[in-house]
Amino acid sequence: MGRGKIEIKRIENSSNRQVTFAKRRAGLVKKAREIGVLCDAEVGVVIFSSAGKLYDFWTPKTTC
């Protein structure tokens, strides 16, 4: 039993939209961190909110 498919469209309610944005942003950053650790890759993520606020994440540069 899996999750049902959702229609990808703009969320009209602004508070629901902000909650969804925050949850998905956290999920993207978590996945970026995981791929950086698992694959020993340098990963960078840049996200701009609808209000123009910048959120970023970079894995630390490793030296050999």
3D architecture notes:
Strand 1 (44-48) and strand 2 (54-58) form a beta hairpin. The longest helix has 26 residues, at 14-39. The chain is of the alpha+beta class. It has a two-stranded antiparallel sheet with strand order 1-2. The chain has one helix at 14-39, and strands at 44-48, 54-58. The protein is flat and about 40 Å long. Helix content is 41%, strand content 16%. It has one helix and two strands, in the order H-E-E. The model has no long low-confidence stretch (mean pLDDT 91).
Would you tell me the overall average pLDDT?
91
Total E-strand runs: 2
**Alpha-beta content class:** alpha+beta
Low-confidence stretches: none
What is the succession of H and E elements? HEE
Strand composition percent: 15-25%
Rg to the nearest angstrom?
A: 15 Å
Keywords: DNA-binding, Nucleus, Transcription, Transcription regulation
Pfam family, one: SRF-TF
Subcellular location: Nucleus
Main location: nucleus
Write the SSE topology:
Elements: H1 14-39, E1 44-48, E2 54-58
Antiparallel strand pairs: 1-2
